[in-house]
């Protein structure tokens, strides 16, 4: 019934998963100039703060933001709601805005026959999740822009993704879709309402996640082994990663593989897990998905080779990849990984950071090429042979043949006269002669090719990249989404804190502290103890809230709490831990399912209008908030000894038992939590003065080793301290011979005290 209603009944489909990917770079958008217009007087979206909504403020569409005004209008006028969801850096959202939402005729249909609602998915992740569940269940996939038609009671009955404006040979045009839905609403409304109720009931049953009659979660060893096997089946041996194309970085998978290696390091499976993660990270670091000039990573690759990316840059990718590359450095000691992590954080500091300490959401994929007026995807990042020759003409001394810096640079990064973007990514031939920089040879091979030392080549390439940075500054930059979200800022606090601690970079830890202070100053309501969803930077550099105040969702609490726990371990400042505990209490109050276990994505009161209240069950480009919460509960239990938080973690994992058993690969971050819960956490206690060098040496030792199931506790010997009040056993742990001393505690059993980092290292590797 669902498929019949959403697809066959109207002969509609959104863009298939392969549609936008095949055209991700240099695709001809076929944007129509016919009958397009932009209003001189803006619509009501002009009063919003969201960059995405503001991009539609001059459309000839009577847009409403998500809210009661729109719902009341739909009920009073008996009209269906047209809901369009996207985000500011979405390339295909831009395409549909220009092709369809600027079209005067389409605008009249949307304004007269529908109540049209525009939603920024990053402001309203609850709305996005509910209706994306519908679209994915009723079509071959999902994506953005997401376009869904609703009854006045917000029940979905038709959905899709991108629609071209007019009919084509294989696709129904958006105008035709609107006219058919308008006619069906007038002629067969009763049937539509009945069917939409059936669809919603079916989705509600399918999305229910509960403990049922189970008392315990599944066995971690079996679930983690199955997760590893499922990943191995789809692993790309040649290029790394876990799909054909498009190929996403998926840090949650890499984190699982490192944890699996740590638990099985003496086995062939453990070695295999490490190899899969390391190879994937190296191939991404060498590929075009990494910005070799400005640093940071693009959203995903449109091919198996990580060569041609979709060029938007998202904050959450930078945060998670900074951690993944830092973990790879912990595991291997290879400075390639630490260099990449530092490069990511350098990019964020320079391009995605607000002066007050917060972090912006994203940079767009599109920008205006030099001498043109129309934005194109990737224009900011592409290079021609002539550009590089002109920019880098200097001769290279000591080479075995006449060689300029430009020639060396082009050889190493795969730049060719005809361009290195294949026809699959450029079906219209618009990007001939353009190149995405991608490392084609190791430093040693490039050096050997020209009879140079590897270190000489490294310095020359650094010089070349710096010159390209300066030239790129003259280009038109992609648009910046100046929205600052609590969840993604929490992720970024984790990124800076973990990298700073592991790499021994105090300035990175300080930036994490600045980020946490920003969260407390701008995204935390002291009177209620609740988080706000987000805030915005103004042109003058100040920070302001949205015109409609948005309270935080589950993901905001989960990621901020994790960031604060990581920051406590990096800085040793217990104030961050105390705030994390207060936020965890608030999260439990607002989102915990007392009957079924686990956390809902949104508050019951705030999501009252939506037909579903979901628990996210997918670790995708971001880990699900329930997966992160499971880790947080385990860590907080270890910091406090409070049994209720361990009980919640067990109940959460039990609620997701079916998913964990059947498709653990869908929840690799939760599988990690399940393993830690059943292995138990190592409480590493350092007794010593926070300022002492001997204390610092032991802390540095802890940070240098990858131990996924640990918490780090700094005890300064003060019985009245916050942690000593939480964990009374701390007062029994003493320094040995007045030296900073470490203890490793598991299952309430303490190791013998050690005072030397080498001894502590042996304990942690047991």
Automatic annotation (TrEMBL):
Q: Where in the cell is it found?
A: Secreted
Output the Gene Ontology cellular-component terms.
Answer: extracellular region
Q: Which organism is it from?
A: Sarcophilus harrisii
An individual GO BP term: carbohydrate metabolic process
The record's annotation in CDD domains points to:
SSP411 (cd02955)
Q: Know the name of this protein?
A: Spermatogenesis-associated protein 20
Tell me, what does this protein do in biology? May play a role in fertility regulation.
The Spermatogenesis-associated protein 20-like TRX domain sits at 42-203
A Pfam family annotated for this UniProt entry = Thioredox_DsbH
């Amino acid at each position: 019934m669902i498929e019949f209603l959403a697809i066959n009944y109207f002969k509609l489909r959104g863009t298939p998963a392969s549609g936008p990917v095949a055209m991700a770079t240099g695709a001809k958008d076929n944007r129509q100039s016919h009958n397009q217009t932009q209003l001189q007087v803006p619509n009501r979206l002009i009063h919003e703060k969201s960059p995405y909504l503001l991009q539609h403020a001059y459309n000839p569409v009577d847009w409403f933001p998500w809210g009661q005004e729109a719902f009341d209008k739909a009920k009073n006028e008996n009209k269906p709601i047209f809901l369009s969801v996207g985000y500011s850096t979405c390339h295909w959202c831009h395409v549909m805005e220009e092709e369809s939402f600027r079209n005067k005729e389409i605008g009249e249909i949307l304004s007269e026959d529908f109540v049209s609602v525009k939603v920024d998915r990053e402001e309203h992740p609850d709305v996005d999740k509910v209706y994306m569940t519908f679209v994915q269940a009723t079509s071959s996939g999902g994506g953005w822009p997401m376009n869904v038609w609703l009854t006045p009671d917000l029940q979905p009955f038709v959905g899709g993704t991108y629609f071209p404006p007019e009919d084509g040979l294989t696709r129904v045009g958006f105008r035709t879709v609107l006219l058919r839905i308008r006619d069906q609403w007038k002629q067969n409304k009763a049937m539509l309402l009945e069917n939409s109720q059936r669809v919603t009931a079916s989705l509600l049953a399918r999305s229910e996640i509960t403990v049922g009659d189970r008392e315990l979660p599944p066995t971690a060893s079996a679930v983690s082994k199955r997760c590893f096997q499922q990943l191995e089946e789809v692993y790309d041996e040649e290029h790394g990663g876990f799909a054909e194309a498009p190929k996403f970085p998926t840090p949650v998978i890499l984190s699982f593989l490192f944890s699996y290696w740590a638990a099985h390091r003496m086995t062939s499976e453990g070695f295999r897990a490490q190899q899969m993660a390391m190879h994937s990270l190296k191939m991404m670091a060498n590929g075009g998905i990494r910005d070799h000039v400005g640093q940071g990573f693009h959203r995903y690759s449109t091919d198996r080779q990580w060569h041609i990316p979709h060029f938007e840059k998202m904050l959450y990718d930078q945060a998670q990849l900074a951690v993944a590359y830092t973990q790879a450095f912990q595991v291997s000691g290879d400075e390639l990984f630490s260099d990449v992590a530092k490069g990511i954080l350098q990019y964020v500091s320079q391009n995605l950071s607000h002066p007050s300490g917060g972090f912006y959401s994203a940079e767009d994929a599109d920008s205006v090429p030099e001498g043109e007026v129309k934005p194109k995807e990737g224009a900011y990042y592409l290079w021609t042979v002539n550009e590089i020759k002109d920019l880098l003409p200097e001769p290279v001394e000591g080479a075995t043949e006449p060689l300029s810096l430009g020639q060396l640079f082009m050889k190493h990064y795969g730049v060719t006269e005809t361009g290195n973007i294949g026809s699959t990514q450029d079906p219209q031939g618009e990007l001939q002669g353009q190149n995405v920089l991608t490392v084609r040879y190791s430093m040693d091979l490039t050096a050997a090719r020209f009879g140079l030392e590897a270190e000489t080549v490294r310095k020359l390439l650094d010089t070349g990249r710096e010159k390209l940075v300066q030239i790129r500054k003259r280009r038109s930059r992609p648009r910046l989404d100046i929205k600052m979200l609590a969840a993604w800022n929490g992720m970024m606090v984790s990124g800076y804190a973990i990298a700073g601690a592991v790499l021994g970079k105090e300035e990175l830890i300080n930036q994490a502290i600045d980020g946490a202070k920003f969260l407390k100053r701008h995204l935390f309501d002291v009177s209620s103890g609740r988080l706000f969803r987000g805030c915005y930077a103004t042109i003058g550099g100040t920070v302001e809230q949205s015109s409609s105040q948005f309270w935080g969702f589950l993901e905001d609490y989960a990621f901020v709490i994790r960031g604060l726990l990581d920051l406590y371990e990096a800085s040793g400042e217990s104030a961050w831990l105390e705030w994390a505990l207060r936020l965890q209490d608030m999260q439990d109050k607002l989102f915990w399912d007392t009957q079924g276990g686990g956390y809902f994505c949104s508050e019951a009161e705030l999501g009252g209008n939506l037909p579903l209240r979901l628990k996210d069950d997918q670790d995708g480009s971001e880990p699900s908030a329930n997966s992160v919460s499971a880790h947080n509960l385990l860590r907080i239990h270890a910091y406090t000894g409070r049994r209720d938080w361990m009980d919640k973690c067990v109940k959460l994992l039990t609620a997701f038992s079916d998913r964990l058993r059947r498709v653990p690969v869908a929840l690799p971050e939760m599988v990690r939590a399940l393993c830690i819960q059943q292995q138990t956490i190592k409480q590493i206690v350092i007794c010593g003065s926070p300022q002492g060098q001997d204390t610092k040496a032991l802390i540095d030792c802890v940070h240098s080793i990858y131990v996924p199931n640990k918490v780090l506790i700094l005890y300064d010997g003060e019985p009245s301290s916050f942690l000593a009040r939480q964990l009374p056993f701390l007062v029994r742990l003493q320094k040995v011979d007045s030296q900073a001393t470490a203890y490793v505690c598991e299952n309430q059993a303490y190791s013998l005290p050690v005072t030397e980092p080498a001894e502590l290292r042996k304990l942690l590797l047991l």
